[in-house]
Specification:
Elements: H1 2-34, H2 43-55, H3 59-77, H4 80-110, H5 131-151, H6 159-169, H7 174-187, H8 197-221, E1 224-230, H9 234-242, E2 249-254, E3 261-270, H10 274-284, E4 289-295
Length: about 325
């Protein structure tokens, strides 16, 4: 029991650490590459950017206030468990959006000859006079950051909350709802005095690249592998793998040529655990026969949760 509590603590600590790093990346991508060129992104940060471009009201304040309202609704509709990491992310991202802007403004003041500064936001263009490259780099950094957040079962708030609430009552996927919200926010930038088709297209490019990188990070992080291990020392190998807190299944087999009975170990593991499993096998039985293959998805305890709606009768 104590071991389980300890493992849960370290798992949660690692999740919050990765979420923090992911949100920092998102804040840097948004502040350094998107805001100086007035590119509109998706999510509540994008909605805050639209308001900022129109009125000068700071992005982080809009982001925080709207999220507080959405969280109050989500606590009632979705429950406390859904909101814990989201609350952490909202407060942290609000702080990071503010502090990164202040740091970049300070950099612009300290090195005035190195950057062109947007007079409206006071933020320097890290990529000087190249809005397209800034769009790509900002979207890529944001996508990687969000991917790390979602990989650790976190959420950046905003449209994630809206999509989750609607998903609970309507038969639409989270991805569809988030895409619809993001497209609406980006398209609204056309209503700005400085709005143009060019900036609208940059916003769409940002959305596409961010989602592609987000999916890539999540898919890579959740890749699983399957091992078939043939060894006379199967019991020692199984015991050692089990100490990694990874399950092992023993199958009865028979060699067709020798007609000898053999035990076959089946192991499903995360891709990043493969090296440790190979080391265990190498140390115990260097002559073992091992087959490793990628699997598309593994669902159940220790892996991803099964998320399928029950059929409506």
């Amino acid at each position: 029991m104590a071991l389980k509590i300890k493992l849960t603590f370290f798992q949660d600590f690692r999740d919050y650490l990765i979420i923090t790093f992911g949100l920092l990346l998102y804040a840097l991508g948004f502040t350094c590459f998107q805001l100086p060129y007035e590119i509109t992104t998706g999510g509540l940060a994008g909605a805050g950017a639209v308001i900022f471009y129109a009125t000068g009201f700071l992005v982080q304040y809009t982001f925080f206030m709207v999220n507080i309202i959405l969280l109050a609704i989500a606590l009632k509709v979705l429950g406390w468990k859904f909101c814990v990491k989201t609350i952490y992310a909202v407060f942290l991202l609000t702080f990071l959006l503010g502090i990164t802007q202040e740091i970049m403004k300070e950099v612009a003041l300290t090195h005035p000859d190195m950057f062109y500064v947007n007079p409206k936001s006071g933020l320097p263009q890290v990529v000087k006079d190249n809005i397209f490259m800034s769009c790509i780099l900002g979207a890529a950094v944001e996508g990687i950051g969000l991917g790390l957040v979602f990989l650790s079962n976190g959420s950046s708030g905003g449209t994630d909350i809206i999509a989750s609430i609607i998903n609970k009552y309507k038969d639409v996927t989270l991805g569809q709802m988030m895409m619809l919200c993001d497209l609406t926010i980006i398209t609204s930038s056309l209503l700005l005095p400085t709005g143009s088709i060019d900036k609208l297209l940059y916003g769409y490019c940002t959305l596409i690249i961010t989602n592609l990188l987000l999916d890539y990070v999540v898919d890579r992080g959740r890749q699983s592998v399957q091992f078939f291990i043939f060894s006379l020392k199967y019991d020692e190998i199984a015991a050692a793998i089990n100490e990694m807190h990874r399950g092992v299944t023993v199958l009865n087999g028979q060699g067709w040529y020798t007609k000898h009975e053999r035990k076959v170990l089946v192991v499903l593991a995360k891709k990043n655990e493969s090296t440790n499993i190979f080391r265990i096998i190498q140390n115990i039985d260097p002559g073992a026969f091992v087959s490793q293959s990628k699997v598309i998805g593994v669902f159940g305890y220790g892996f991803d949760k099964i998320k399928v709606k029950a059929d409506k009768k």
